[in-house]
Design goal:
Helix 2 (58-66) packs antiparallel against helix 3. This protein has a single domain (2-156), classed as Roll (Nuclear Transport Factor 2, Chain: A). It is an alpha+beta fold. Helices cover 52% and strands 32% of the residues. The protein has three helices and four strands; from the N terminus they run H-H-H-E-E-E-E. Strand 1 and strand 2 form a beta hairpin. The longest helix is centred in the N-terminal third of the chain and has 50 residues, at 2-51. It has a four-stranded antiparallel beta sheet with strand order 1-2-3-4, with helices on one face. It comes from Rhodococcus sacchari.
């Protein structure tokens, strides 16, 4: 009889460990799936915010876009916008509209994701008032900070 009790106890412990392991795996899968959805949406919204601007509001638009970026990348983006893009946009009345044509997740965990976006950009300027359309692909890396997905890198490909 004591051997039976010990055997049943061992089976119960093994069963409990198995259930816990399966539960943990399901929770991880769920977190990754949520990350995939949230990160893709954040990447699309943030890419448009970063790349679209009008010559008369470029400074305010760049400041707003910078709020969705991580520290080092935010500094790089702000420097590029303030020192190169904004002065040229104001001087030549350049405006850029951006739309996401397609997006995909390359990889995702609960707090890091990489996406691929296909963008369409329409540019107008005082030198070229006819709209010029161009397509591009960008790789967007994101990190989750305090419940928000922030862009840590945007790389043209």
């Amino acid at each position: 009889m004591p051997h039976l009790a010990i055997g049943l106890s061992v089976v119960a412990v093994v069963f409990a460990v198995l259930v816990a392991w399966l539960g943990y795996g399901a929770a991880q899968d769920s977190a990754a799936e949520t990350a995939r959805t949230e990160a893709r949406v954040a990447a699309e919204e943030q890419a448009v915010a970063m790349l679209a601007y009008t010559h008369d509001q470029v400074d305010a638009q760049a400041d707003a876009a910078a709020e969705g970026l991580t520290g080092d990348f935010r500094d790089e983006y702000t420097n590029l916008m303030k020192n190169i893009i904004a002065p040229g946009a104001k001087e030549k009345a350049i405006s850029v509209q951006v739309s996401v044509q397609a997006s995909s997740i390359v990889e995702a965990t609960a707090d890091h994701a990489v996406t691929l976006l296909f963008l369409n950009q329409i540019t107008t300027s005082s030198e070229n008032p006819e709209a010029v359309s161009s397509g591009s692909r960008v790789r967007v890396e994101l990190e989750k900070h305090d419940g928000r997905w922030l862009v840590s890198r945007l790389t043209p490909i």
